[in-house]
Design a protein that fits this description.
It is built from eleven helices and twelve strands. It has 332 residues and is α/β, with parallel strands linked by helices. The radius of gyration is 23 Å and the shape is elongated.
């Protein structure tokens, strides 16, 4: 009996990852034309035959697995409301009945073997990414998945445009302080991919307006909120920063309160911004200038795309950046 040629056989011959080969064989438009042609040609030469995947279009309920970061990244839950995300996903599916199963992205592949939960029709990775093994499993089973607030050139994703958001904050601060603006960016090392994008937004915004900004000296990275007192306040004193762009609202609120304990007035001494428009901003007597980060919109986009793939059998890719709204406060 002739052995069936698999995705893994093709990937081994070409020296490519099984997930990349699988994406091409499943008609993904995210792979370069040259690589796609090579994979398809090799698959034909090797006699590859695509395995038939049963799609239960008429099923009463669609099962979606929502992956969240592991517990070691619990600070994620301080920034975002998962209930809002789930509501957005449900809105995205419209009239389609959807069962959303939440899981920690801890590398456990046995989740997909559970008969009690039924077949998984699609996956959403919120603030996290699949491991190589999980990605290959999903591709092999033709299970569509999408990343939220994470990006990869070969993946489907929806995120908030950090560059545009930070540029809006830089513009507002520049209009307030003009050429006297001396800014710094306070980043968060535990979320490097997002922090780096927001840092780049500050940098590009400053370059566009001829505002001096040194990415070595004027970027202050912290691992925790306690480091704001230890690292950021001394830097403000040492370099006379009068504009502070924080990674997010939680950091901005903490810095605001820490400054008040020193009797430093905001924005008299320095202007301050956050990012995300978190509900925690309502705790302060002054409204911090920020950018709206809508989990509802992210979830809705993910739900609409998965609904199209699962119910309508669409092959469209999605790599989308949503522009957040600038929420005017009183700290610039």
């Amino acid at each position: 009996m002739t052995k069936r040629v698999t995705v893994y056989d093709i990937s081994k011959r070409l020296g490519l990852s099984p997930s990349t080969v699988s994406r091409v064989l499943n008609n993904s438009s995210l792979i370069s034309t040259e690589k796609k042609e090579l994979i398809l040609r090799t698959a034909e030469e090797m006699g590859y035959q695509k395995r038939a995947i049963k799609r239960q279009k008429g099923r009463a309920i669609i099962n979606i697995r929502l992956f969240l970061p592991k517990t070691q990244f619990s600070y994620i839950h301080l920034f975002y409301d998962v209930a809002e995300l789930i509501e957005g996903i449900q809105h995205g599916f419209g009239e389609t009945r959807v069962n959303i199963i939440t899981s920690l992205n801890d590398g456990d592949l046995s989740l997909f073997d559970s008969k009690k939960l039924g077949d998984i029709d699609g996956c959403i990775f919120a603030f996290t990414k699949p491991s190589d093994a999980l990605e290959e499993l999903l591709e092999d089973r033709s299970v569509p998945f999408i990343l939220l607030n994470r990006s990869n050139p070969e993946h489907n994703y929806v995120l908030v445009d950090n560059l545009v958001g930070m540029d809006a904050l830089v513009d507002a601060m520049y209009k307030k302080r003009g050429e006297s603006l001396k800014p710094c960016y306070v980043g968060f090392s535990k979320l490097p991919s997002v922090s780096e994008q927001r840092e780049m937004g500050v940098y590009k915004g400053c370059v566009a307006r001829n505002i001096p900004f040194d990415r070595e000296k004027d970027v202050i990275m912290v691992d925790s909120l306690t480091e704001l007192r230890e690292k950021v306040l001394p830097a403000i004193e040492k370099y006379s920063y009068n504009g502070v762009f924080c990674f997010n609202d939680l950091m901005a609120v903490s810095l605001y309160q820490t400054a008040l304990r020193r009797n430093w007035r905001v924005p008299d001494l320095f202007s301050l911004t956050g990012f995300d428009n978190s509900p925690m901003l309502q705790l302060l007597d002054q409204r911090i200038d920020t950018i709206e980060f809508s989990l509802l919109k992210l979830g809705k986009e993910a739900g609409m795309w998965l609904n199209g793939r699962i119910i309508n059998r669409l092959d469209n890719a999605i790599q989308k950046a949503l522009e957040g709204d600038y929420i005017v406060g009183e700290t610039i």
